[in-house]
Amino acid sequence: MTSLYHNVISGGILIGVIYALIALGLTIIFGVMRLVNFAHGEMVVIGMYAGYALWSATGLPPWTLAPVAALLLFAMGYLLQKAIINAFIDRPQHAQFILFIALALIITGLHLLFFGPDPRPIQIAESMQSYAIGSIRLDVVRTQAALMAIGLIGLLMLFLKYSTLGASIRAAADNLIGAQVIGIRVRRVYAVTAGIGMACAGAAGALIAPLFDAQPFLATDFTLIAFIIVIVGGLGSLMGALVGGVMIGVAEALAALTVSPALKTVFSYALLVLVLLLRPNGIFGEPERS
Amino acid sequence: MTQRKPITRRRVLAAGAGALTATLLPGIGRAQGAPAKIGVILYLTGIQSFMGQQTRKGNEFGAKIVKEAGGPPLEFLYGDAESKPENGRVVAERLIRDGCTLLIGTNDSGSTISVAQAAEASKIPFLINIASAPQITEQGFTQIFRNFPPGTALVANAVARIKELGATTGVQPKTAVILHVNDTFGQGIIKGVDVLWERLQVPIKILDRISYDVRARDLSVEVAKAKASGADLLMPITRVSDAILMIREMVKQNWSPMGIISPGSPGPYEKAFTDALGKYADGYMSCVPWYNPTKKRSREIADRFEYETGDRFDLNAAFAFEAVEIAADAIKRANSAQPAAIHAALKATDISDHIIYGGPIRFDEKGQNPNIGGVMLQNQNGKPVVVGPQDAAEAKAVFPLVPFDKR
Question: Quick check: B215 and A221 CB within 8 A?
């Protein structure tokens, strides 16, 4: 019975790390631009289809294709921000919400048009394999995906901490007027941030594609899980997204094991309500600046 | 010069009543010999679109065969309920407004109930091709005709086949664990299992029932829990995508029970399942209604469907095909496209020569065809074959299951 718990918790941690990468994309966009991207799940699904298409074309292991999917989504996010989203930055929140909901509907429609409603499975030998470590069995695909996600999260942290552009992004997030005063080109920073946010979603999508077969209608689930994680971890907090992702992954796994698998998502929402009651800004969140 | 008649209150009311009647009674005013409009409600997109697309192929193939055989002219209008049960009613109402005088559908119990409500309100007959929830024929609907067994019959058939299996192979499993989807269909089958297992005194103890959400994308915990039960048999009640997830997890977690036998659920016999899992799809058994492979016409229809579409003539396609044949038979006998005439003709249906294993197609007072048989399928060499009962079997059952790590 102990090994059952070990297996379930380790599986929860692995999927939680991928959830964290999804949530990181959402939180970084909010942290810098104060925009709530309701089309985030759709970006994950674009990443899934990108992973599927790249795997079909090259036959390379799916986890190695995540950086390529990230680059594609970075370019898409950058251009989208420059072309459309920048125009909505100073508009009322309801206008921004409608923009992102419209983007979500358009993306899902395009997925249906180009790929159809049927799932697109990535069929590789590793999908049936697992690593045995003592009594613990780790799913090979999930482990590879989680390790790549950790690598990408690490790179993003380093970029934000040590690069000049990363410092500009943090400056814009901390104090927008101050950033403008010292000459930071805020619109460019916004475009890069949107690119990074969507790159996170794209990479996570490519990593998750061999686990959850790509389908247009998965987007809502990913958007919801990303929202739960960033609210639990603290909206705008990178560490919050990371910890929140793992917490939600493990909580869902344990709930499925100890209560009922059909109720596991209920536990995510219960955790969300609990955090909102006890710590309204999330575990790592700070009170909103006036 | 003709004198224009004045517009009076009476004239306006009469015109309004005429327009209302024309709206409520579709078909009136249609030219004699015009094709009867049949509305088909399916899940053509969304999470259950696998089945919907396959069902549509069966409907279309049925229409082609009916036309070739000189059947009545039929026009099919397809409505997509988008894998959402609540959409069934809205789509059905739209098809009725578009002039459909017979509805066919769906491939899900939830949306079938929803469509049945619209059919009842408009007095349009509704021919159910696939939906097993027992309550569908227990709610007093007068317009429904179900050519698919209810969950209780599915389970009863399954129990009979499982009992046979023990006798024919000499291997008797003692315990089982059930892994089931928690939608209307899954709940219906579970209720059937609970009732019949005790009543029929099945000598297999059910150790646990593990339910999961219909939208589940990850069954690792569910499979780990089922494995930990130590049961001889796994009895899954799934859809196709979750059946694939389940087997992948079983292989990864290195769990090969004595057998995997589904008491009447979709998934294992579908092409998507065997294509996705290859050798790991073999051995999976399912107790379902199926076409009779030992019958010449059934075999010919199945072979032609597979040749022309490149797809498998599975349960979805076969029942969709048969629904079109039933509809054509009723419309031909009714000699009318009027809903009431089609309804009366459907009530008098009596078709002996048909493709599904079982007795003649007849509908009882609740609109249920009680004569549908059940077979046990097993995936062998990448495709489902009938392994029981003896009079329909085309191969012998492989039992116990060949362990996944020995393949």
Answer: yes
Statement: the pTM of the whole predicted model exceeds 0.80 = no
If one counts every other C-beta atom within 10 angstroms of the C-beta of residue B306, the result is 16
Instruction: Please report residues of B whose CB lies closer than 8 A to that of A128.
Output: 248, 251-252, 280
Cis peptide before B106 (omega within 30 of 0): yes
List the Cα angle A124/A127/A129 in 5-degree steps: 115
| Every domain of chain A and the residues it spans | 2-278
pLDDT in tens, A242-287: 999 999 999 888 888 888 877 788 888 888 899 889 988 888 877 6
Tens-digit pLDDT profile for residues B317-355:
999 999 999 999 999 999 999 999 999 999 999 999 999
Residue B2 has a CB neighbour count (10 Å cut-off) of 4
Tell me which chain B residues have a C-beta less than 8 angstroms from the C-beta of A121.
Answer: 244, 276
CB B226 within 8 A of CB B210: yes
Burial class (CB in 10 A: 0-12, 13-18, 19+), A255: buried
Query: Quick check: helix, strand or coil at residue A87?
Result: helix
According to DSSP, the β-strands at B383-388 and B375-380 are antiparallel
Q: Which residue has the tokens 């631009």?
A: A33
Chain A positions in Cβ-Cβ contact with residue B217 (cut-off 8 Å):
211-212, 218, 221
DSSP-derived 3-state class of residue B175: strand
pLDDT score recorded for residue B31: 42
Q: B29 pLDDT band (50/70/90 cuts)?
A: very low
Q: Is A8 near chain B, with CB under 8 Å?
A: yes
Please state the rounded mean pLDDT for residues B192-197.
82
User: Are the CB atoms for A254 and A8 separated by under 8 Å?
Assistant: yes
Q: Are B297 and B356 in contact (CB under 8 A)?
A: no
Neighbours of B398 (CB within 10 A): 16
Given a cut of 90, is residue A229 above it in pLDDT? yes
Q: How many residues does chain A have?
A: 290
- Domains present along chain B, CATH in parentheses: 36-149+295-347 (3.40.50.2300), 152-288+375-406 (3.40.50.2300)
Contact between B224 and A118 using a beta-carbon 8 Å cutoff? no
Report yes or no: B151 and B180 within 8 Å, Cβ to Cβ. no
Largest CA distance in chain A: 61
A4 touches chain B (CB under 8 A): yes
Say yes or no for a CB contact (<8 Å) between B49 and A118. yes
| Per-residue pLDDT tens over the stretch B393-402 | 999 999 899 9
Selection from A249, A253, A239, A225 nearest residue A283 by Cα: A239
Please state whether the peptide bond connecting residue A62 to the residue before it is cis, i.e. omega within 30 degrees of 0. Answer: no
Average pLDDT over residues B195-215: 85
Q: A211 and chain B: CB distance < 8 Å anywhere?
A: yes
Residue B237 Cα distances to A231, B85, B150, angstroms: 36, 19, 15
Rounded to whole angstroms, how far apart are CA atoms B162 and B155? Answer: 10
Site from A52, A136, A260 to mutate, B interface, most B CB atoms within 10 angstroms: A260
**Any idea of the CA torsion for B170, B174, B179, B182, to the nearest 10 degrees?**
110
**Residue B65, exposed/middle/buried by CB under 10 A (0-12, 13-18, 19+)?**
middle
Nearest alpha-carbon partner for B147 in B361, B353, B383, B342? B361
Residues of B within 8 A of A129 (CB-CB) are 252
Task: Decide: A213 and A122 in contact? Cβ < 8 Å.
Answer: yes
Beta bridge partners of B36: B74
Q: What is the largest CA-CA distance in chain B?
A: 95
Scanning A84-185, the segments in alpha helix (DSSP H) are: 93-115, 140-162, 164-174, 176-181
B271 vs B267: CA distance, rounded Å: 9
